[in-house]
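Meet my pick.
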Amino acid sequence: MESPVLKDKRIAISISESPDLEGLGYGQVHLEDTMVEIGRYLLASEMNLAYGGDLRETNNFTRTLFDLAQNQYNKEPQKVFSNYFAWPIHLNLSEEERSKNYNTARMVCLKPPDSELDAKQFIPPDTPENKAIWARSLTQMRQTQTSAIDARIMLGGQMDQFKGAWPGLVEEAWLTLKAGKPLYLMGAFGGCAQLVIQMIQGQMSSHDIRDQVGSKMKDDYSAMINHFNREAAQRGVAPIDYEKLSAYFKGKTIADLNNGLSEAENMILFKETEIHRAIALIMKGLSQRFAM
Protein backbone atom coordinates (compact mmCIF):
# COMPACT_ATOMS: atom_id res chain seq x y z
CA MET A 1 0.00 0.00 0.00
CA GLU A 2 3.04 2.25 0.21
CA SER A 3 2.77 5.40 -1.87
CA PRO A 4 5.70 7.79 -2.41
CA VAL A 5 3.45 10.84 -2.28
CA LEU A 6 1.97 9.80 1.06
CA LYS A 7 5.12 8.63 2.82
CA ASP A 8 5.75 10.48 6.11
CA LYS A 9 2.66 12.69 5.80
CA ARG A 10 1.25 13.42 9.26
CA ILE A 11 -2.51 12.93 9.41
CA ALA A 12 -4.58 14.02 12.40
CA ILE A 13 -7.53 11.88 13.41
CA SER A 14 -10.15 14.05 15.09
CA ILE A 15 -12.59 11.88 16.98
CA SER A 16 -14.55 11.89 20.21
CA GLU A 17 -17.82 10.55 21.52
CA SER A 18 -20.89 11.57 19.50
CA PRO A 19 -24.25 12.27 21.16
CA ASP A 20 -25.97 10.89 18.05
CA LEU A 21 -24.54 7.34 18.14
CA GLU A 22 -27.49 5.58 19.76
CA GLY A 23 -30.06 7.32 17.58
CA LEU A 24 -28.10 6.31 14.47
CA GLY A 25 -27.90 2.68 15.57
CA TYR A 26 -24.24 2.75 16.59
CA GLY A 27 -22.26 2.40 19.78
CA GLN A 28 -18.85 3.55 20.99
CA VAL A 29 -17.30 0.36 19.64
CA HIS A 30 -18.30 1.25 16.06
CA LEU A 31 -16.64 4.64 16.32
CA GLU A 32 -13.49 3.14 17.80
CA ASP A 33 -13.35 0.34 15.21
CA THR A 34 -13.61 2.91 12.42
CA MET A 35 -10.76 4.91 13.93
CA VAL A 36 -8.58 1.80 14.17
CA GLU A 37 -9.24 0.84 10.54
CA ILE A 38 -8.42 4.37 9.37
CA GLY A 39 -5.22 4.32 11.44
CA ARG A 40 -4.17 0.95 10.05
CA TYR A 41 -4.57 2.10 6.45
CA LEU A 42 -2.66 5.32 7.11
CA LEU A 43 0.21 3.52 8.82
CA ALA A 44 0.33 0.85 6.11
CA SER A 45 0.72 3.66 3.58
CA GLU A 46 3.80 4.97 5.43
CA MET A 47 1.93 7.93 6.93
CA ASN A 48 2.10 9.08 10.54
CA LEU A 49 -0.75 9.76 12.97
CA ALA A 50 -1.53 12.72 15.21
CA TYR A 51 -4.11 13.07 17.95
CA GLY A 52 -4.90 15.36 20.86
CA GLY A 53 -5.91 13.24 23.85
CA ASP A 54 -5.50 13.13 27.60
CA LEU A 55 -5.25 9.40 28.45
CA ARG A 56 -8.32 9.50 30.68
CA GLU A 57 -9.50 6.07 31.73
CA THR A 58 -12.91 6.87 30.26
CA ASN A 59 -11.45 7.91 26.91
CA ASN A 60 -10.30 4.85 24.97
CA PHE A 61 -9.38 6.70 21.77
CA THR A 62 -5.99 7.92 22.97
CA ARG A 63 -4.95 4.58 24.45
CA THR A 64 -6.16 2.72 21.36
CA LEU A 65 -4.02 4.90 19.08
CA PHE A 66 -1.02 4.48 21.38
CA ASP A 67 -1.40 0.70 21.14
CA LEU A 68 -1.97 0.80 17.39
CA ALA A 69 1.21 2.78 16.79
CA GLN A 70 3.22 0.51 19.06
CA ASN A 71 2.15 -2.66 17.27
CA GLN A 72 2.35 -1.56 13.65
CA TYR A 73 5.03 -2.54 11.19
CA ASN A 74 7.99 -2.61 13.59
CA LYS A 75 8.59 1.11 13.23
CA GLU A 76 9.65 3.55 15.90
CA PRO A 77 6.39 4.49 17.65
CA GLN A 78 7.70 7.96 18.43
CA LYS A 79 7.88 8.63 14.71
CA VAL A 80 4.53 7.22 13.62
CA PHE A 81 2.30 8.68 16.36
CA SER A 82 2.31 12.12 17.98
CA ASN A 83 -0.08 12.91 20.81
CA TYR A 84 -0.63 16.53 21.81
CA PHE A 85 -1.38 17.29 25.47
CA ALA A 86 -2.73 20.69 26.47
CA TRP A 87 -1.57 22.28 29.72
CA PRO A 88 -2.46 21.60 32.52
CA ILE A 89 -3.84 18.18 31.47
CA HIS A 90 -0.40 16.64 31.09
CA LEU A 91 0.49 17.58 34.68
CA ASN A 92 -1.80 14.75 35.80
CA LEU A 93 0.36 12.15 34.07
CA SER A 94 2.26 10.07 36.59
CA GLU A 95 5.96 9.39 36.16
CA GLU A 96 5.03 5.79 35.36
CA GLU A 97 2.67 6.92 32.59
CA ARG A 98 5.24 9.33 31.19
CA SER A 99 7.93 6.66 31.16
CA LYS A 100 5.65 4.01 29.67
CA ASN A 101 4.24 6.24 26.97
CA TYR A 102 7.53 7.92 26.09
CA ASN A 103 8.50 4.80 24.16
CA THR A 104 5.05 4.45 22.63
CA ALA A 105 4.57 7.85 21.02
CA ARG A 106 5.93 11.32 20.62
CA MET A 107 4.32 13.17 23.53
CA VAL A 108 3.98 16.89 22.87
CA CYS A 109 3.24 18.63 26.18
CA LEU A 110 2.30 22.28 25.75
CA LYS A 111 3.12 25.20 28.01
CA PRO A 112 0.47 27.41 29.67
CA PRO A 113 -1.27 29.87 27.33
CA ASP A 114 -0.29 32.84 29.54
CA SER A 115 3.20 33.68 30.80
CA GLU A 116 1.93 34.59 34.29
CA LEU A 117 0.68 31.06 34.94
CA ASP A 118 2.84 28.60 36.88
CA ALA A 119 3.65 25.84 34.41
CA LYS A 120 3.97 23.28 37.22
CA GLN A 121 0.73 24.16 39.02
CA PHE A 122 -2.39 22.25 38.02
CA ILE A 123 -5.58 24.30 37.98
CA PRO A 124 -8.96 22.54 37.84
CA PRO A 125 -11.67 23.84 35.47
CA ASP A 126 -13.95 24.70 38.37
CA THR A 127 -14.53 28.45 37.98
CA PRO A 128 -15.34 30.68 34.98
CA GLU A 129 -11.82 32.14 35.20
CA ASN A 130 -10.14 28.72 35.24
CA LYS A 131 -12.40 27.43 32.49
CA ALA A 132 -11.40 30.40 30.32
CA ILE A 133 -7.75 29.49 30.91
CA TRP A 134 -8.46 25.90 29.87
CA ALA A 135 -10.24 27.17 26.76
CA ARG A 136 -7.22 29.24 25.70
CA SER A 137 -4.91 26.33 26.47
CA LEU A 138 -6.90 23.86 24.39
CA THR A 139 -6.99 26.33 21.49
CA GLN A 140 -3.21 26.69 21.75
CA MET A 141 -2.80 22.90 21.65
CA ARG A 142 -5.02 22.62 18.58
CA GLN A 143 -3.18 25.44 16.83
CA THR A 144 0.15 23.75 17.52
CA GLN A 145 -1.11 20.43 16.21
CA THR A 146 -2.67 21.98 13.10
CA SER A 147 0.60 23.69 12.19
CA ALA A 148 2.38 20.30 12.34
CA ILE A 149 -0.03 18.14 10.33
CA ASP A 150 -0.61 17.66 6.62
CA ALA A 151 -4.31 16.75 6.72
CA ARG A 152 -7.16 15.97 9.12
CA ILE A 153 -9.83 13.25 9.17
CA MET A 154 -12.88 13.96 11.34
CA LEU A 155 -15.66 11.76 12.68
CA GLY A 156 -18.05 11.96 15.62
CA GLY A 157 -17.42 14.66 18.21
CA GLN A 158 -19.20 15.51 21.43
CA MET A 159 -21.37 18.61 21.54
CA ASP A 160 -21.29 19.26 25.27
CA GLN A 161 -19.16 18.48 28.34
CA PHE A 162 -16.18 19.96 26.49
CA LYS A 163 -13.60 22.16 28.21
CA GLY A 164 -12.67 24.49 25.35
CA ALA A 165 -14.03 27.66 23.81
CA TRP A 166 -15.91 25.53 21.30
CA PRO A 167 -16.61 21.83 20.87
CA GLY A 168 -13.17 20.40 20.14
CA LEU A 169 -13.81 19.03 16.67
CA VAL A 170 -15.59 22.19 15.53
CA GLU A 171 -12.53 24.21 16.52
CA GLU A 172 -10.20 21.73 14.81
CA ALA A 173 -12.23 21.95 11.60
CA TRP A 174 -12.09 25.75 11.75
CA LEU A 175 -8.31 25.79 12.31
CA THR A 176 -7.75 23.25 9.52
CA LEU A 177 -9.78 25.27 7.02
CA LYS A 178 -8.00 28.49 8.05
CA ALA A 179 -4.67 26.78 7.43
CA GLY A 180 -5.81 25.57 4.00
CA LYS A 181 -5.03 21.95 4.87
CA PRO A 182 -7.07 18.99 3.59
CA LEU A 183 -10.11 18.13 5.71
CA TYR A 184 -12.09 14.88 5.39
CA LEU A 185 -15.51 14.86 7.05
CA MET A 186 -17.23 11.58 7.88
CA GLY A 187 -20.76 12.45 8.99
CA ALA A 188 -22.20 8.97 9.45
CA PHE A 189 -21.67 9.06 13.23
CA GLY A 190 -23.26 12.50 13.69
CA GLY A 191 -21.76 14.82 16.30
CA CYS A 192 -19.46 17.69 15.43
CA ALA A 193 -18.45 16.25 12.06
CA GLN A 194 -22.09 16.29 10.95
CA LEU A 195 -22.55 19.79 12.40
CA VAL A 196 -19.59 21.09 10.36
CA ILE A 197 -21.04 19.47 7.23
CA GLN A 198 -24.41 21.14 7.86
CA MET A 199 -22.79 24.54 8.47
CA ILE A 200 -20.78 24.35 5.25
CA GLN A 201 -23.94 23.42 3.39
CA GLY A 202 -25.79 26.38 4.93
CA GLN A 203 -28.27 24.19 6.78
CA MET A 204 -27.67 25.59 10.29
CA SER A 205 -28.27 29.08 11.68
CA SER A 206 -26.16 30.44 14.51
CA HIS A 207 -29.16 29.99 16.82
CA ASP A 208 -29.54 26.34 15.77
CA ILE A 209 -25.85 25.76 16.46
CA ARG A 210 -25.95 27.47 19.85
CA ASP A 211 -29.00 25.41 20.82
CA GLN A 212 -27.14 22.18 20.06
CA VAL A 213 -23.79 23.08 21.58
CA GLY A 214 -23.35 22.83 25.33
CA SER A 215 -27.00 21.95 25.89
CA LYS A 216 -26.20 20.17 29.16
CA MET A 217 -23.89 22.89 30.48
CA LYS A 218 -25.61 26.13 29.49
CA ASP A 219 -25.20 28.12 32.71
CA ASP A 220 -21.58 27.09 33.33
CA TYR A 221 -20.67 27.52 29.67
CA SER A 222 -22.32 30.94 29.46
CA ALA A 223 -20.42 32.09 32.56
CA MET A 224 -17.14 30.92 31.00
CA ILE A 225 -17.96 32.69 27.71
CA ASN A 226 -18.70 35.95 29.54
CA HIS A 227 -15.38 35.80 31.39
CA PHE A 228 -13.48 34.71 28.26
CA ASN A 229 -14.93 37.51 26.15
CA ARG A 230 -14.27 40.20 28.76
CA GLU A 231 -10.56 39.34 28.55
CA ALA A 232 -10.40 38.51 24.84
CA ALA A 233 -9.31 41.92 23.54
CA GLN A 234 -6.57 42.46 26.11
CA ARG A 235 -5.21 38.96 25.53
CA GLY A 236 -5.32 39.34 21.76
CA VAL A 237 -7.65 36.40 21.18
CA ALA A 238 -10.91 36.23 19.25
CA PRO A 239 -14.10 36.25 21.35
CA ILE A 240 -16.44 33.27 21.43
CA ASP A 241 -19.06 34.41 18.94
CA TYR A 242 -21.48 31.91 17.38
CA GLU A 243 -22.69 34.43 14.79
CA LYS A 244 -19.15 34.75 13.44
CA LEU A 245 -18.55 31.00 13.66
CA SER A 246 -21.70 30.31 11.66
CA ALA A 247 -20.83 33.00 9.10
CA TYR A 248 -17.31 31.58 8.68
CA PHE A 249 -18.48 28.08 7.85
CA LYS A 250 -21.38 29.30 5.69
CA GLY A 251 -18.82 31.25 3.68
CA LYS A 252 -17.06 28.01 2.80
CA THR A 253 -17.87 25.51 0.08
CA ILE A 254 -17.05 21.84 -0.33
CA ALA A 255 -14.15 22.89 -2.56
CA ASP A 256 -12.60 24.65 0.46
CA LEU A 257 -12.09 21.26 2.09
CA ASN A 258 -9.10 21.13 -0.28
CA ASN A 259 -8.94 17.36 0.04
CA GLY A 260 -8.44 15.99 -3.48
CA LEU A 261 -12.03 14.74 -3.76
CA SER A 262 -14.72 16.09 -6.07
CA GLU A 263 -17.89 17.61 -4.68
CA ALA A 264 -19.78 14.42 -5.51
CA GLU A 265 -17.17 12.28 -3.75
CA ASN A 266 -17.26 14.47 -0.66
CA MET A 267 -21.03 14.23 -0.59
CA ILE A 268 -20.68 10.44 -0.53
CA LEU A 269 -18.07 10.62 2.26
CA PHE A 270 -20.39 12.84 4.31
CA LYS A 271 -22.93 9.99 4.51
CA GLU A 272 -20.96 6.78 3.90
CA THR A 273 -21.67 4.13 6.53
CA GLU A 274 -19.46 1.34 5.20
CA ILE A 275 -16.00 1.79 6.74
CA HIS A 276 -13.88 0.52 3.90
CA ARG A 277 -15.70 2.51 1.22
CA ALA A 278 -15.17 5.64 3.32
CA ILE A 279 -11.50 4.80 3.81
CA ALA A 280 -11.10 4.17 0.08
CA LEU A 281 -12.42 7.67 -0.61
CA ILE A 282 -10.08 9.21 1.98
CA MET A 283 -7.07 7.34 0.59
CA LYS A 284 -8.02 8.43 -2.94
CA GLY A 285 -8.32 12.04 -1.81
CA LEU A 286 -5.00 12.00 0.03
CA SER A 287 -3.21 10.45 -2.96
CA GLN A 288 -4.68 12.98 -5.39
CA ARG A 289 -4.17 15.94 -3.07
CA PHE A 290 -0.48 15.24 -2.41
CA ALA A 291 0.24 14.27 -6.00
CA MET A 292 -0.63 17.84 -7.06
